[in-house]
Each structure stands twice: as C-alpha cells, then as structure tokens.
Amino acid sequence: MYLATQLVRGMGSFFKSCACARQGRCAHPYGIRYRDVSGRQREEAGYTTQQAALDRLTKVYEEKRTTPRAQADLKREIGKQRFGHYASTWLTRQRHYVPGSVRSVTQVLNGQILPVLESRRMNTFTATVVDDFIMSMEERSVGPAAQQNAFDTLKKILLDARRRGGITEDPFEGVIPPEYIPRKITIPTLDEIHALKAVSSDGLRLVIDLMSGCGLRNGEAYAANPERMVADDVYRVTEQIEGKTRERAPLKHRKLGEFRETPMPWTVRESLLRYEKEHGTDANGYLLRTQRSPYWAHTTLEYQWGAAKKRAGIARRLTTYSLRHFFASNCLARGIPITDVAEWMGHRNINMTFKIYRHLMPASIGRAAKFLNEGL
User: Could you tell me the pTM of the whole model?
Assistant: First the structure.
C-alpha cells in the first residue's frame, strides 16, 4: 500500500511507502515530495511524525513564496546550464586569478573535467555524479596529483553554482576525495647552497637567498624590492612577477593588494642591500631585470640555475623549488610551529604543508611526552 496526502497547491505532499494496513498509525517514517525554488522535484524521507513532515513542507513553501521571481528565475537558469558553459563563465569571474592560474585551470578543465562532464546540466550534479567522475579518472589512470587538481577545480565550480542557487543539494556530501601523497622531496644541503651561490650571477644569488632564507616562490623572488623590508628582520611579500608574461601579478591564492610577511635572516637583508648598492633599482624599486626585459622570468632562472649547477658540480636532482624545501626544513628543524611555516610560505591549506614536511618535524611526540612529564 502507499499513503500520500496532497496539500495546498504548490506546497507538495507527504506520504508513507510502507505496506502496513493502517499506515496512519504505524511507526514507519514519513517522506515528503515538493518542487524547490528552481522548479526541480525533490523527495526527502525520515520524518518520524506527520507534523514534522508538515513543518518541513511549510518551511519550503514559505521560502518559495518569499523568494523574488527574478531570483527564482536566475536559479532555474543556472540549474539548466550545461557544465561547460557554466565553467567558462565561472572562470571569467575569477578576476583575482593571475594569468598562470588561469592557464592551469584551463588545462585541468580541458584535460580532465570537460571530456567527462561538459554536457551535464548543473542541477543534475549529485554526490553519485562526483563519485563516478573520480572513478572515471582512476579508470583512465590519471595520476594522483592530477586527480586532486581536477577534484579541487570541480569543487570550486560546483560549490559556486550551489551558492548561487543552481544546485540544491551538496554534491560533495559523503564523497571521499582523491588523495595525493607528495613524492619524497629533495632538500639541498647548506654546502650545496653555498657552492651554488659561489658560482652564480649576482641576480641568481639574490634569488637563492630569498627562496632559501625567506621561503619565497620563484615569481615572488623576481619581484625583489628593498622597500619590502618593513623591519630589519621582516620581509613583506606583496606581489609576484608572472613567470611567462613577465608582468606584475597578485600573490598566489590571494587577491590584489593582499600580502604576507616572512622572517628575514640577516644574510637575506645584506644580500638585498648589497645588490641595490651595486646594481641599483628601477623607478619602482625593483632589483632584478635583464638587458631585454624589466623583470626576470622562468626562462632566465632556468638558464642560470642549470649553468650554476653545472659549474658547482652538483649532479643531484635539485630544482629552484628545492630552495623552498630548504627553508621549510630549516624552520621545522628548529622547532618552529608548522602553522607558522605554512603562513610564511603562502600555503593555502596547512594540510598540504603537513603532508610534505611532517617527517621533518623532529620527534615531536617524544618531545611532547618529555615536556608533559616535566609538568607532572
């Protein structure tokens, strides 16, 4: 048997789908059926009493009545859009993205997401759809790092659509995201850093100091500027030079005008002041430039780094990013909290910092036990 009760037009209905002879008195829960603001029919279950089901339907009905027509129409329009179209408009709205971020997201969309989800309507995304997408990447042998990038990008787009009302349910509820475990990092020794600096140009030496001493990214080091020394031991990172376009851009994961500060060892301070004294700055205080360009770029760094490694006789697989790993290991080896390290390095999520550098934290549990014992 099937019990269903129709209420006021537009309000929906409550029902029981059990086979009990007297459903009005049995203990089975009630379900409800209604159309949401976007016009999509929905069902919910698990209401222990008829009144609880009615209360929920009344709340939904009031929300529909108080939602302006234009807003309801917009939600319906978003819900009917195809994912490919919505993703394109979403990307144009990310005005805080630097050109490099736009290129990366476009590559992830074209390579992993659009081939599978481009034609799907936005209001049909559910946790099952997201799970199936993750499984499709596994079946295509997509690498763990690429899986995580694709998942993160998809999540940003779908949650944006949900915030704007195009998706009613949380499409990530209960979804287990792909896990990327970073490969073992290569950390240069202090002797290797000194050997590289000994054979480097003045510009590369400054980049090495900023990345290994302050934890800056490549593009942030290209924007080296003495005016960013806001104290004798503090360097303020305000922007980066985009490595391909050679243009000034906001920091990664931050909006225009936002900044972070990082401790500045005296060696870095002396390196900045020495370079300024010997080479001067441009009209805006920037230090690093080439004969053909007002700023450094990735090609400049790659050429000089490769030449310096060869002259220094370093055969290990060291990249310029290894200098950031040195900064992190130097901090953690001296007991600096990983939360501070994540902030100084500009990481968006401390979980990634923890995954990469957890093994560098020296005997943290043992040290904690010793301190706690002393307190007892």
Answer: 0.64
